[in-house]
Write a structure and sequence with these properties.
With 281 residues, the chain is α/β, with parallel strands linked by helices. The protein contains 9 helices and 12 strands. The strands form 2 sheets. It has a 10-stranded mixed sheet, with helices on both faces. A hairpin with a 7-residue loop joins strand 10 and strand 11. The chain starts with a strand and ends with a strand.
Length: 281
């Protein structure tokens, strides 16, 4: 049986080499093969970059199996197709699109809207040195029951890195109706939208921490009454990686749109982001 495959998109940029480091580290802990893909029209241009990528991995992880591939085509489409057979696809947060007229950061976001498997977008702290320095907690941003695949990925990632796992469920503050508020009028206190406190009980259907299902790394779950993304962005400042499910609408190749939480995390997260597609989207 073939070892699992981790694929990383390469374009020669600094961000792409950081993504290469992260992909190599992820392949190493998984016992996986690493594939480096450079989408470029001129194969001669790809040669030096791919040789540099192979040499960089060989210096750091000499036993890791590595293949390199130059391929013509839109990077988002090429990597989305390859993601079907990958344990993980990795890109930088500001890679080149390879297409005229598109800003650099769109590759990761366009790929997140199309990927058929887990996608790691390396932003904030990332790379081999950051992950190898020691376990940092894995954060799971939970939205609804459809996020089961993302929760499973987050728990397995925490096991691989022997890191603590924090499942954070957030929901939006809704001010009480006039009837419920009685004679009270005016907006809620300024900090009400961000204050979990005893007066903000967790939803009754909040899932139990993964530890209740199977033994493994330190795990805990919590809920916070917060703006839709504010609590998650703040939490990424002290995380090694955040996992979120991709809630998508539209057609996979002609106009899929990311949900607001995923979109904001890909633009503002302070640590690398893993996007796990929801089955059927």
């Amino acid at each position: 049986m073939d070892a699992p495959l981790v694929t990383v998109g390469m374009d020669g940029s600094v961000g792409a080499f950081r993504a290469l480091d992260a992909a190599a580290a992820e392949a190493h802990v998984r016992g996986a093969r690493l594939e480096v893909v450079y989408c470029v029209r001129d194969a001669d241009e790809a040669g030096p970059v791919l040789r540099a990528a192979r040499a960089r991995v060989a210096r750091r992880l000499p036993r890791l199996p590595v293949t390199v591939r130059a391929q013509d085509g839109d990077p988002a489409e090429v990597l989305a197709r390859r993601s079907r057979s990958c344990a993980l696809t990795v890109v930088g947060s500001r890679g080149r699109t390879g297409l005229p007229g598109l800003p650099p950061h769109l590759v990761g976001r366009r790929l997140a809207a199309r990927t058929q498997g887990p996608l790691l977008v390396v932003r904030g702290r990332g790379g081999l040195s950051a992950r190898a320095a020691g376990p940092r907690r894995v954060l799971m941003g939970l939205e609804c029951d459809d996020d089961a695949e993302a929760v499973l990925f987050a728990f397995e990632e925490a096991q691989l890195w022997q890191a603590p796992l924090h499942v954070l469920q957030t929901w939006t503050y809704r001010p009480p109706s006039p009837e419920a508020a009685g004679s009270r009028s005016g907006p809620p206190p300024a900090d009400a939208a961000e204050r979990p406190g005893p007066s903000s009980p967790a939803p009754a259907d909040r899932p139990a921490p993964p530890r209740a299902v199977r033994p493994g790394p330190e795990a805990r779950a919590s809920a916070a009454r917060t703006r839709p993304c504010g609590g998650l962005i703040t939490a990424t400042g002290n995380a090694g990686l955040i996992v979120v499910a991709a809630h998508r609408g539209g057609h996979p190749w002609t106009g899929r749109q990311l949900g607001p939480v995923t979109d904001v995390l890909l633009r503002q997260s302070l640590c690398p982001v893993v996007v796990v597609p929801v089955p059927g989207t």
